[in-house]
Amino acid sequence: MNFHKAPVNYVSEVTINVSDLKKSLDFYQEVIGFKVKSQTGKEAELTADGKTTLLRLVEPSNPINRHRTSGLYHFAILLPDRSDLAAFIKHLAEKDVRLGASDHAVSEALYLDDPDGNGIEVYRDRAPEEWSWNNGEVHMVTEPLDVQDVMSTYKGQPFNGLPEETVMGHLHLHVSSIEDAVKFYTEGLGLEMILRFGPQAAFLGFSKYHHHIAVNVWNGVGAPKPAKNSVGLNHYIIKYHTEEAVEETVNNLKSLGYIVEETPEGTFSEDPAGNRVKISV
């Protein structure tokens, strides 16, 4: 099953604020392997296939870097194949990039930061048939990645940027309250609870994906919203599979008392912690 195209709803694109667009563009091209799709002034759209925007970079006026707020924990880039993860590991080793690595049972993941400290995960999924479920919750762990076993799939290909089939896999957010966030994402946006880590974190997905959105309170319960010009999350897009699904989502949000903004750029709402989402078809 493809969890990142219709008829499944999914996170298609993330926009982040950066402090220095040129420095970030160098990093995202040379280290991560994106291509620049377009650049206008202080904004740039990045792509893997040359057509689809996955990441948008914005340099706001007078950018600041505040910590311990709600906002971005990491966005996650999903590679199509395990051998692509192996090629990426080799590429990062050659670039001498510091990173973390974990096996989550459902996936194998690498973690690194951009020049502003924005968190990035690059991962590959195990086949859904290999996932374990217990009382309706998916089994996820955080264990050391068997890098040697991943590297056994390396096909000797040079790293020439992200593979064309790369997609935005998921988004993990700092929020101020797990309960408030879960209500917004389930009752408002229509995701399902996939896994709950006590009072600290929750993993939510469409169509039984291990998570399209995760939320945590690791920056503190009641963490304040970041300033508009703060580096980190600007907004993200959830693609719904039909106009009817968009309409239903907007009506759900309004009936629950959430603000929905109709702008020339599209339809936006905000979770209770201030994380902004564009609702698109």
TrEMBL record:
InterPro entries per UniProt: Glyas_Bleomycin-R_OHBP_Dase (IPR029068), Glyas_Fos-R_dOase_dom (IPR004360), VOC_core (IPR037523)
Top EC group: oxidoreductase
This enzyme's EC code(s): 1.13.11.2
Domain VOC, chain residue ranges per copy: 10-125, 167-281
Recorded GO MF terms: catechol 2,3-dioxygenase activity
The keyword ATP-binding is assigned to this record: no
Keyword field contains Oxidoreductase: yes
Entry keyword set: Oxidoreductase
Coiled coil: none
PANTHER family, A to Z: CATECHOL-2,3-DIOXYGENASE (PTHR43279)
Protein name: Catechol 2,3-dioxygenase
